[in-house]
Each structure stands twice: as C-alpha cells, then as structure tokens.
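ok so for the tutorial part 2 we go from a plain amino acid sequence to predicted structure tokens. step 1 is just haveing the sequence, like this:
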Amino acid sequence: MATDRIVTLRGERELVRRAGHLFGSARSEFLCAAEDLLTWSAGVNAAFAEGCRPWHVEGLSMRKLYTPRAVADAYAEERLVRVSEHAEVRISAAPLPREAIVIDRKVAILAGPPAPGTRTYSVVSAPDVVDGVRTLFDAAWESATDLHDFRRARAAARLPALSGDARRILRMLGDGHTDEAAARLLGMSLRTYRRRVAELMTLLGATSRFQAGLRARELDGSL
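step 2 — the prediction. this is what the tokens look like for a chain of 223 residues:
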C-alpha cells in the first residue's frame, strides 16, 4: 500500500531493495528504537555493504534506544558494546510501543508488529508523523539508562555473591595480568586460580577472559 507520504513494504527483502539506501543517508541525525539488534539488521547491513557508514559523517548525532532484550546474553551484549563505540546507546526499562528509525527529521521507518507471517515496514515522510515519532523517541530516551550505566548496575547487583578472593581475582583480570603472574601475586596455585576464574566467568555471564576483564573494569569502583 502507498500514499504520497507513506509506503508500506512487506518483508526484509523489500525493505532492503526499496529503502536500504536510506539507512546510510543520514547527515545530521540518526535515531533508532528497537527491542534488540535484529529488527533492523537486514536494511542496515545492506547499506553498510554498499560502503555507507553514517557515523563517519562529521557532526552526525546518532542515538540508539533498546530494551534489555538487546543485552539478554553475552554475545548480544558484546555486539551492543561495539555499537556504542560510534553511537549513544541507552536501555529502556519500559517496552517500546513501536520499533522505529528517524533520519534527519525527514523520514521515519516504522516496523510492524513481529506477528507470524511477513513483517511489514512503513516508510513515512509526512512531516507531522515524522515529528510525532521523534517526539515519542525523545520521551523514551529521557527516561532510559545509558548502556554503560545499565551494565555497571547489573554487574554490581551480583557483588554480594563475591568473596574477597573473587574481587581480587577480578582486579587481576581487569589489570590484564597473565594467569601465572596473577596466581603468584595472590598466593594461589595456577590450577586453583584458573578454576576460580572459570567460576567467576560463569557468575558474571562472561564467555571469555576478555569479557570478564571488561566486567571487572565496570565493577572497578565497587571492588
């Protein structure tokens, strides 16, 4: 269905084919609201495949708003941390009423409900509608939490379960010591140290030493 200012696309393939170029066209502002990193993956990746990198545009403001589903597991969390290297990212505790992208205050792309069947996407250029979507985004953004603060608070909530030895081990991971050096400094056998590191990785939801080190640095103020 199409009007002068609204075009409805059916499925990710049509989204990519007819509107994929829009994702890389931002010059002043790029806003994104989504439950997780999957909703817009096809269109964004298509734009990137053509060499479009909107965050390379000087003066471009990029804000991305997600729900806790975007950090539901270690892999998703690591991807979102990478996203935060080129955009402001916040986590909304409240559900998002609509997943949307707003580009340069001129175009809004709205994702239909993720119901069974083909998902629809509406490309809207009607100024009043675009402005309304942007206003809703701003309201949700103001009440959301910065990604790094969200991760720090979530990690800090696990601290009561950590013993003094566990906190010292986290410091060693955060400082980048080798296993051998850390075990020696802590007065532990290498085998015991590695076993304790494995236990801490499980407790903190980290899938690698690198992630455990990141969590350790996030917790640094509480250790």
